[in-house]
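Report of the visiting student (M.T.), summer placement. My assignment was to run the structure pipeline on a short list of targets and document each run. The first record concerns protein-serine/threonine phosphatase.
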Amino acid sequence: MGCCISTSSHSTCSSMSEGEVVTMCGVQKRTRTTSSYHMNTLQQMTSIPNRIFTNGKSQSSCIYTQQGRKGVNQDAMIVWEDFMEEGLTFCGVFDGHGPQGHLVARKVRDTLPLKLYSFLDSHESKKKKSTGSNCCSGNSRSDCDEGIEDKDKVDSLWKEAFLKSYKSMDKELRSHPSLDCFCSGSTAVTIVKQGSNLFMGSIGDSRAIMASNDSNNSLVAIQLTVDLKPDLPREAERIKRCKGRVFALQDEPEVSRVWLPFDDAPGLAMARAFGDFCLKEYGVISIPEFSHRIITEKDKFIVLASDGVWDVLSNEEVIEIVSSSPIRSTAARTVVDSAAREWRNKYPTSRMDDCAVVCLFLDGKMDSESDYEEQGVSSATLQSDCNQSGNVNESDDAQICEPSLQRNFTVRSSEEKNDEVGVVVCDDHGWSGLEGVTRVNSLVQLPRFSEETPGE
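After the run finished, the structure tokens were exported:
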């Protein structure tokens, strides 16, 4: 079989020259990005075309983030169109926590896509050497057709790519010379859209959902990822098996946290994360949940967001907000604005969390200039408004210090409160993790451990 990595007609060989017309599985196509193109721009991330990471829009998406009231904005986001090949899109949202969480989230945002790309590029290069032919050439069409039909092998390849990329990312954070991730970390929800294929990997409690038409042609919300929190039974079981502890504090019984076996610290409110190396020996992992979904014509758009959104808005509410947005390029901002309003209404005494939203429209279309004119706004004005109101300045020198971590930030309406404290013991079949609560993700900043071994 050839080395095609897609079940669609968008397979590519990364060594092709930029702009060269090639035959991919029998289809004539002009490439736009290459392996050398991406690798030569590692030090020039902001200049890569079709890659956006600040408030704005692209050809098929819009993104927006807003700082909460807990200090520096620790959320990061990215949409990278024509990633690896023309027509392939990478999207991600990353929610940092801890003293250096904002730096961890940005590091993951900038590095993880390149690691994913590097793995797939290396895989194709090895395949090409072993077969001695171009996997996507016209002479190999039968091999490519065989690869297209072999969905299990495609799933296996992409799953391996996500697993190894996440593992390499966490390893790089552990050995980073200046970024201390001992008590800091980040979530990640990432998707790759390749033709009609959607590949997803996630850790932590950032979430992806999709809007799709049901049999009555009404939009419904489909949750694509699971919020990987410590009260998820299988996550709690793993943490306990590794001698970590999972329980909730009396003043916030809704929030299960991960604690060291010998100390009531650090109180991490998620079961999987990049960084947080003080807990990596005690059950917190960076292995992503991977899934593959085939997109149909009933599927309309995808929304990725940090928990600052999901804590106050349901999946259905987010779908309604995006679908009702008069201009697609403002959809992400409208979701964030709605979340901010809900924070003020539901939790007036609490500190609003950071919010980051990515909206990816599956038909690949955005607004035309006539759409802006109908709404009485120009595209230039829209872009200016996004840049001025999103608090996306990434200068480390300009960042304010994170406020001291306290234990009284969790709030929840009285009808939602649960009297049980500790781990929920139940079957996790069909577990969705939809209920959100507002909280500090990590309660205590630990000093570095001494060499002394704690007693039993």
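The chain has a mean pLDDT of 78. Residues 46-108+182-393+406-416 form a domain with the Phosphatase 2c; domain 1 fold (CATH 3.60.40.10). I thank the supervising group for their guidance throughout the placement.
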